[in-house]
Design brief:
Layout: H1 16-32, H2 37-45, H3 51-58, H4 67-77, H5 81-89
Helix pairs in contact: 1-5, 2-3
Protein name: Transcriptional regulator with XRE-family HTH domain
GO molecular function, one term: DNA binding
InterPro entries: Cro/C1-type_HTH (IPR001387), Lambda_DNA-bd_dom_sf (IPR010982)
Length: 93
C-alpha cells in the first residue's frame, strides 16, 4: 500500500523503445517544419557539421543528453517539448 502524499520516484532509465519513439517524433516535427538535419544542427549547435548527431537522435541510436538540448531543438523546430512528447508517446502527463 502506498503512503499518502508520497510522490512516486520517476523512472531513471529511458528504454530503447522510448528513445526510438522520441527520435521518430523529432524527425516528424523536423519534416513538418521543412528543415533538413543540417539546418536543425545549425540552429541547435551553431554548426551544420553536427547533422550526424541529429540523425543519431532521430534514429534512437543515442539518447538526448540534456533538457537544454531538447528545449533548443523544440525551439528550432517551432514546437513545444510537450508536443514532441505527445507525438512520441501519445499523451503528456
Amino acid at each position: 500500500m502506498k503512503a499518502r502524499g508520497r510522490v512516486p520516484e520517476p523512472d531513471t532509465e529511458v528504454g530503447v523503445s522510448e528513445t526510438l519513439s522520441f527520435g521518430r517524433a523529432l524527425r516528424e516535427c523536423r519534416e513538418a517544419a521543412g528543415l533538413s538535419q543540417a539546418q536543425v544542427a545549425e540552429g541547435v549547435y551553431g554548426t551544420a557539421n553536427l547533422a550526424a548527431l541529429i540523425s543519431d537522435l532521430e534514429a534512437g541510436r543515442i539518447d538526448p543528453v540534456s533538457l537544454g538540448l531538447l528545449l533548443r531543438m523544440a525551439d528550432v523546430l517551432g514546437v513545444s517539448l510537450a508536443e514532441v512528447a505527445a507525438r512520441a508517446w501519445g499523451r503528456v502527463h
